[in-house]
Amino acid sequence: MGKNLYNGGLMKKEFVFRLTLVGIIALLVYQFGVKPMFSPEYFIQKGRNIDWAKGRISAGDGQYDVIVVGEEPDGITAAVSASRLGAKTLLISGGKELGGTVFKSLYLDMEFQQGSRGERLERGMASELADRIGKDITVEKYKNALYELAKQEKNLEVIYNTELSAPILDKGAVTGVIVSSGGEKRNYTGKRLIDATRDGKLLEMSGVQYFTGSEDLNLEHKYQPVSLNFEVDGISPSRLKTFISKNKSGFTGIVSRYDTTYINSRIGDFRVIGEDNGRPVIQCLELVDLDVSDPKAVVAAYRIAVNEAKELTSYISKQFGELKGMTFSKAAESFYIKENRHFKGEYVLSVNDILDNRDFNTKIALASSPVEVGKFAEIGRKYILGKPAQYSIPLGCIVPLKVENLIMTGSKISYSSLAATSAAAVSTNMTVGESAGAFAVYSIVAGKTPREVLLNKSTGGLEEFTGLIKKQGVFLPEFKIPNKNASNWYYADVRKLNSLGLVAGGIMNDYRFSAEARQVDLATLLLNGVYRVAREKYTLEFDSRLRPFFINDKLTKEKLGEILIALYGVRADKGREYDKACGMGYVNSTLQLTLKDKKVLTLDDVYNASVSNIQLYTKKDIPD
Predict the structure, then answer these.
(1) In angstroms, what is the C-alpha Rg of the chain?
(2) 106 — alpha (psi -120 to 50), left (phi > 0) or beta?
(3) What 3-state DSSP class applies to 63?
(4) Is 230 exposed, middle or buried (0-12, 13-18, 19+ CB in 10 A)?
(5) What's the DSSP call for residue 481?
(6) Which of 41, 381, 418, 563 is the most buried (most CB within 10 A)?
């Protein structure tokens, strides 16, 4: 019996041992096999240095497969992407270091966007760069991460302090660039060129069409606010961050009450970034209504903004005893300019593409930032057109019109001015750059120009290209996310008004369809809508006809009639304005039925009336 007990004990120990061993193996499989597949790093490692094009392309002596002009982060990801696929690649930096405006403006933004399920949308190299930087971002860490990203690529050559002089053109195709370095001119030729400069110098010199600021809305010299970031002394970044975190509501409230000394200054979201020299970098100061195309205006505004930064620092230090020793140290070398030129491509991403959560079958990146139109808001107010769950950016946005062999990346690519406020985030630009580099290589291997690959959809080449960038780590899942407002009958009108930047749904995309309307709601939409659709129709006399209705009184049917009669400048008997407006076709038949038993109009009625009358008055359709 003892023997049986002994054997039973052995069997039990053996069972426990085996069970433990199976558990250890399962843990190892999960830790090193399964778990990485759910992390961004899996997508990076999966595609690193795959040399997909090796043996399929070969640059001749003195020639490159891909030339990237511009040292912005998206230019670096474009160059590294092309290099990793096996292309002989040249990256031309105008400055002495990589990063461009990131370092000149101290604009360190590595905040990733979240998708509809809370997942990170930017993966691939954007994630790789973030992992290299670590949790606490600083200028030096950012700089080192960019250098390391480029340095490790065996197929990539980087040249510095080299200015673009001119493109080399041959029958409408860009075949190289002429650059200046150390007073000497040099020629570099390549099969594909990528413009990653901040303002699209290569695109402009090659003859690609563009508009500036909000010119697509008939608003000249209207740009997104610029930022001036600055360093402070007398306190460590960690201490300042801790103080703000513990006193968030009080700190935010007091800072928001700061009375700016310059009429066009405003305080945005307050962020603190660590610096390697121990000084915090503060990001919060913005200037609106600055014409960034005017160098003299920019220089003058910079001086004013530096003084504003000094005053703001002094104000904060006086308001909080714990921050008493905080002093202004120095301002960034230049403004962070979010918007300047918008170059036209085979597809122009619209604001409704974004707010409709559109999933293109030619997508190259995902994004989810809100459409924030601060350039149209009053000083001190935010103006958010809407917030997408997530949307995709199509390949056509990086293929410029008319010129061959040229690809573009960065905030200047083919977005409408409204769409750019969401799509041109730094992290999104890096993903677009990564896809652009891969597309350059893919088109070379395919033996077609980028435009031919894009437009010749019957070959299945686009599916192969999408598979290629997915393998490199770009996150491109299929999705279908309906807009919650799409079922509302009046949403068609909202889409048209959105395309003009005239209505604000905010973060919740709430257009308050059933809210009671005021006279000013309709008058504002009509006046601004006519201006943005057909500026030639706007006159001071036209303006004066609508200004009397810029009041907060309720919008009744009778007042609707008065406003519409005033819009067209026609006469009507007192008290008969609504009947006259209906008879003239200013109030469409559908709206007449809706208003039959209404005393006060709601905002959905206003959206419908404004769209139909903007189009009728201007004789132009509002694109949606």
Answers:
(1) 29
(2) left
(3) strand
(4) buried
(5) -
(6) 418
Give 582-600 pLDDT, tens digit per residue. Answer: 999 999 999 999 999 999 9
CA distances from residue 510 to 145, 472, 504 in whole angstroms, order as listed: 41, 38, 8
Neighbours of 410 (CB within 10 A): 28
3-state secondary structure of 615: helix
Q: CA angle at residue 71 from 67 to 74, to 5 degrees?
A: 85
Of 412, 275, 271, the C-alpha closest to 349 is 412
CA distances from residue 314 to 238, 308, 595, 602 in whole angstroms, order as listed: 20, 10, 56, 47
Q: Which residues contact 11 (CB under 8 A, 6 or more apart)?
A: none
pLDDT digits (tens, 9 = 90+) for 555-566: 999 999 999 999
Q: CA nearest 474: which of 125, 207, 36?
A: 125
Place of tokens 């189009």: 615
Say if residues 617 and 567 touch (Cβ distance below 8 Å). yes
Q: What is the DSSP letter of 224?
A: P
- Residue 64, Cβ neighbours under 10 Å: how many? 23
CB-side neighbour CA atoms (13 Å) of 33: 6
Q: Where are the beta strands (DSSP E) in 78-205?
A: 89-92, 156-159, 163-170, 173-181, 184-195
H or E element in which residue 443 lies? helix 426-446
pTM: 0.89
Percentage helix, strand, coil, to 5, in the chain? 45, 20, 35
Question: Phi and psi for 439 in degrees, rounded to 5?
Answer: -65, -35
